[in-house]
Design brief:
The structure holds two protein chains of two kinds. Helices cover 5% and strands 39% of the residues of chain A. Chain A is built from one helix and ten strands; from the N terminus they run ββββββαββββ. In chain A, strands 3-2-9-10 form a four-stranded mixed β-sheet, with no helix packed on it. Chain A has a four-stranded antiparallel β-sheet with strand order 5-4-6-7. A two-stranded parallel sheet of chain A has the order 1-8. By secondary structure, chain B is mainly β. Chain B has one domain: Transthyretin/hydroxyisourate hydrolase domain (Immunoglobulin-like, Sandwich), CATH 2.60.40.180. Helices cover 6% and strands 45% of the residues of chain B. The two termini of chain B are 23 Å apart. Classes of the chains: A mainly beta, B mainly beta. Chain A: It comes from Cottoperca gobio. Chain A: GO terms for molecular function: hydroxyisourate hydrolase activity.
Chain lengths: 118, 119
């Protein structure tokens, strides 16, 4: 039943524990260029593999500035731990919506990194 | 000359794509007003040629709360005649104990970045 894959994907990895970051709430927003306000596009939760399929469809994936918000403190709290970062937001610019974009988050309680992947 | 090194919050921005400090990058520190749920800007600065920005916090310790360090990375890459995947980078963090000092570096390329809580 799976439709075409989302052109935008993410992958959360808990690099402190060497496991996928599963059951983490994430939100995707897009910025309206004329008003500079943000609209919520998708709400999701990462699966057991730390992924969140279906973030956006090809049809609605337009050029613009997007923001992925990861509820990192909530994630660590669910495991009885604190996190230096209450949440992580990654803002990125999509110039060519015909391409695929992979925006992963590698996370520990006191560090994180991201990169443009494929 | 102010003892800028005693700021409880320091940063260091490194352009790891080119292997140089990220000089002349604008950045700003904000604190969340948890009653009004709005961000208040505490200070603005520009990194020096070593990628550091002295005096981000004046007047003693940072009180507990939620803070945001915003780096104008998009403008930085533009000033080098390049594009970047990220228009800016914002690192939001929680301070819970009054007496600590924090080092929040940013290591970045045009298509990646990382940060950690250092000392």
């Amino acid at each position: 039943m799976a439709g075409p894959a989302s052109p935008l994907t993410t992958h959360v990895l808990n690099i402190a524990m060497g496991v996928p970051g599963s059951n983490m709430a994430i939100n995707l927003y897009r910025q309206d260029p004329s008003t500079n306000t943000w609209s919520l596009i998708t709400t999701g939760t990462t699966n057991a593999d730390g992924r969140c399929p279906g973030l956006i469809t090809k049809e609605t994936f337009t050029s613009g500035v997007y923001r992925l918000r990861f509820e990192t403190a909530q994630y660590w709290e669910s495991m009885g731990e604190t996190c230096f970062y209450p949440y992580v937001e990654i803002a990125f610019t999509i110039n060519d919506p015909g391409q695929k974009y992979h925006v992963p988050l590698l996370l520990s309680r006191f560090s994180y990194s991201t990169y443009r992947g494929s | 000359m102010a003892a800028a090194e005693s700021s409880p919050l320091t940063t260091h921005v490194l352009n790891t794509g080119d292997g140089v400090p990220a000089a002349r990058m604008a950045l700003s520190l904000h604190r969340l007003d948890s009653q009004l749920m709005i961000w208040n800007m505490l200070s603005v600065g520009t990194t020096n040629k070593d990628g550091r920005c002295a005096g981000l916090v004046s007047g003693g310790a940072l009180s507990p709360g939620m803070y945001k360090l915003r780096f104008e990375t998009g403008s930085y890459w533009e000033s080098l005649g390049q594009t970047s995947f990220y228009p800016y980078v914002e690192v939001v963090f929680t301070i819970s104990a009054q007496e600590q000092s924090f080092h929040l570096p940013l290591l970045m390329t045009r298509f990646s970045y990382s940060t950690y809580r250092g000392s």
